[in-house]
Automatic annotation (TrEMBL):
SUPFAM superfamilies: C-type lectin-like (SSF56436). Gene3D superfamilies: Mannose-Binding Protein A, subunit A (3.10.100.10). This is C-type lectin domain-containing protein. Signal peptide: none annotated. Residues 13-54, 62-167 form the C-type lectin domain. It comes from Ameca splendens. The keyword Disulfide bond applies. It comes from the Eukaryota. Keywords: Disulfide bond. PANTHER family: C-TYPE LECTIN DOMAIN FAMILY 20 MEMBER A-RELATED, C-TYPE LECTIN DOMAIN FAMILY 4 MEMBER K-LIKE-RELATED.
Length: 236
C-alpha cells in the first residue's frame, strides 16, 4: 500500500519467506505467492493463480479470495477495480487470516520492483507481448515496443541498438523577483556570486519538496545586468 498510515511499527517490512526464498531461480521470478502452509515464495508473474484482494478502512483490512485464476498483473487490476488492492500482509495475524481462506496457493500484493519508468512516474500500465518479459538471453533489463506485434512490449538487453522514441515532458516556468542586499565590497554581478546563488536557490526548492528537473537561470535587463541598484527616496 502506498499509504504509509496503513502500517504501524515497520509492518511494511514484514516477510514470511519459505526457506531459501526469494531465490529468483529462473531470473524472472518477480511476484510473490502465499502457499497453503502460509510461507511465501517468488514465482514468474505470468503464471495463473487465484488471488487474495482486500478492502481497507483506516488500518482495518478485510480479505477476499478470488474464485478464478489469473496472472499477477490481471490479479492486481481485478483487485483494484473491485476492492482496494492485492492483499498487503503486515504481520503474522494477517498471514494467518489469508492462510485460513485459501485451498491452494494465491497471489499477494508483493512484487520485485524491476520495471520502472525513467521519469519516475508511478504507473502500473503494462503492455507485454505473450510470454514477456522472459529474460531469455539473460540481463534483458530494458523494454522495446515490437510494432510487428501491435506495439506490444518485449524485454531486451540494454546493449542492443534500436530505433527509439523520445517525448517532451511537460514543463512549468516561473519568474521570481528577488531583492538582495550586497556589501559594498562585493561586486553585484560577479559570475561566482550568481552561480552560488542559483545553487542555493535550487537546494532550497528541493528541500521544500519541489519535484522534477529544476533548472534556474538569471534574467538580464536591457542593459545586460542581472540586478539593478534600487534608487533611494532622496534620489527620486
Amino acid at each position: 500500500m502506498s499509504d504509509p498510515n496503513f502500517y504501524q511499527h515497520e509492518e511494511n517490512q514484514f516477510r514470511n519467506w519459505a526457506a531459501g526464498e526469494p531465490n529468483n531461480e529462473y531470473g524472472i521470478e518477480f511476484c510473490g505467492r502465499l502457499n497453503l502452509n502460509g510461507f511465501w515464495n517468488d514465482v514468474p508473474c505470468s503464471g495463473t493463480l487465484n488471488a487474495v484482494c482486500f478492502n481497507v478502512s483506516g488500518t482495518t483490512p478485510w480479505f477476499y479470495n478470488t474464485s478464478s485464476s489469473m496472472n499477477w498483473t490481471q490479479a492486481q487490476s481485478y483487485c483494484r477495480e473491485h476492492h482496494t488492492d492485492l492483499a498487503s500482509v503486515r504481520h503474522m495475524s494477517d498471514n494467518q487470516v489469508i492462510k485460513n481462506l485459501i485451498t491452494k496457493p494465491v497471489w499477494i500484493g508483493l512484487y520485485r520492483d524491476s520495471w520502472k519508468w525513467v521519469d519516475g512516474r508511478n504507473s502500473s500500465y503494462r503492455y507485454w507481448n505473450t510470454g514477456e518479459p522472459n529474460n531469455q538471453k539473460w540481463k534483458e533489463e530494458c523494454a522495446a515496443a515490437n510494432f510487428g506485434s501491435a506495439g506490444k512490449w518485449e524485454d531486451w538487453s540494454c546493449g542492443e541498438k534500436k530505433a527509439f522514441i523520445c517525448y517532451a515532458a511537460p514543463r512549468s516556468q516561473q519568474v521570481i523577483k528577488l531583492k538582495l542586499v550586497f556589501s559594498s565590497s562585493l561586486a553585484r554581478d560577479t559570475s561566482a556570486v550568481l552561480k552560488d546563488l542559483l545553487k542555493k536557490l535550487k537546494q532550497k526548492l528541493t528541500d521544500d519538496g519541489v519535484k522534477g528537473d529544476i533548472k534556474l537561470s538569471w534574467r538580464k535587463h536591457l542593459d545586460g545586468e542581472v540586478f539593478q541598484k534600487q534608487r533611494k527616496k532622496d534620489e527620486l
